[in-house]
């Protein structure tokens, strides 16, 4: 179960970086559990075990939920910490999720993303 959560978090890097809306000052309300729940449908896709399926609904839902800069940065940091320790994720697929789901972001999606620069 923990390895599945780690894989999902890598996929979430893409979705977290999708959060390129105008920031407003606030505390992060979006926790790691929430991020994982949005992107759980993406797990089989990013681990080469299934089709894209309902993943885009989760990506778009997360995009809509992460309304503030602290939310987006919090989600990014959650994903980075989990992604670095799980090797089964196809990083190319994870990085391609925004495009696959019709969401445009101005960031390169990578486990090495500097989350402090996510706005």
From TrEMBL:
Q: Which family does it belong to?
A: Belongs to the plant LTP family.
Aminoacyl-tRNA synthetase keyword on record? no
| Pfam families, sorted | Tryp_alpha_amyl
Concerning SMART domains, the annotation shows: AAI
Q: Residues of the signal sequence?
A: 1-28
**Protein name, UniProt field:** Non-specific lipid-transfer protein
Task: Identify the residues that the record assigns to the Bifunctional inhibitor/plant lipid transfer protein/seed storage helical domain, covering every copy.
Answer: 32-115
Listed CDD domains: nsLTP1
Q: Which GO terms describe its biological process?
A: lipid transport
Which molecular function terms from Gene Ontology are attached?
lipid binding
Keywords, alphabetical: Lipid-binding, Signal, Transport
Q: What does this protein do?
A: Plant non-specific lipid-transfer proteins transfer phospholipids as well as galactolipids across membranes. May play a role in wax or cutin deposition in the cell walls of expanding epidermal cells and certain secretory tissues.
């Amino acid at each position: 179960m923990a390895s599945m959560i780690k894989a999902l978090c890598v996929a979430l890097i893409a979705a977290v970086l999708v959060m390129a809306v105008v920031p407003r000052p606030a505390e992060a309300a979006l926790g790691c559990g929430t991020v994982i729940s949005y992107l759980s449908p993406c797990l089989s896709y990013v681990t080469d075990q299934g089709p894209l399926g309902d993943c885009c609904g989760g990506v778009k839902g997360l995009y809509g939920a992460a309304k503030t800069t602290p939310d987006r940065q919090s989600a990014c940091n959650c994903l980075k910490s989990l992604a670095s320790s799980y090797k089964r994720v196809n990083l190319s697929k994870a990085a391609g999720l925004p495009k696959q789901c019709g969401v445009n972001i101005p960031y390169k999606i990578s486990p090495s993303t500097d989350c402090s620069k996510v706005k």
